[in-house]
UniProtKB/TrEMBL annotation, chains A, B:
Residues 32-97 form the Cupin type-2 domain. InterPro entries: Cupin_2, PKS_Associated_Protein, RmlC-like_jellyroll, RmlC_Cupin_sf. Gene3D superfamilies: Jelly Rolls. This is Cupin domain-containing protein.
Amino acid sequence: MSHPINLAEKLAQISTHWDPHVIADYNGNEVMVVKFQGEFPFHLHEETDDFFLVLKGEMVMDIEDRSHPVRAGEIFVVPKGVTHRPRSEHECEVLLIEPKGEPNTGDAATAASKPRI
Amino acid sequence: MSHPINLAEKLAQISTHWDPHVIADYNGNEVMVVKFQGEFPFHLHEETDDFFLVLKGEMVMDIEDRSHPVRAGEIFVVPKGVTHRPRSEHECEVLLIEPKGEPNTGDAATAASKPRI
């Protein structure tokens, strides 16, 4: 049964970084919340765009030869095939959308498990 | 070129209600912002889920035999084929995601035009 999903309540259950947790499904995509702090590896997704919405704090998206600050209330969509690196000096909270089963690193061997909360 | 998209700046350009504006693309979906006030018609989308994230204010999602308040910071995903009606006594601001070309009413004859901003 459908019901409202409170992002802050879900984020309060997460104490780790770079560890997306699935909170909803949309047409074969997983809607996730995650906390970022530090640097993620540069990576790319061959077959999918990568959707980020910063909910709290600020991250930086390194992409090609530029660094984009992405602040709370801002979206950044990384097109498929584009190498990128999210990073954040201080902890920030992010909503992610990726197709179900897509590795967060673009590589199943190094990907997080994406538990459902 | 990818760049951060500020939701409040986009919403400041919208003065109408029930009039989604496209702000980004994700894998063949349109990411939109919209202002709701009053009642939308009951409708359904035969082939797609319908993604709502309330950014500011509060809406109610009438779905089947229940009414769900959905507040700022909350997501509601209406599964495909399920009849629903968003409504809001006071103006509220919402992020929507639907496949490109999907009519917002579920019916091309009555749909809004979804301009890009």
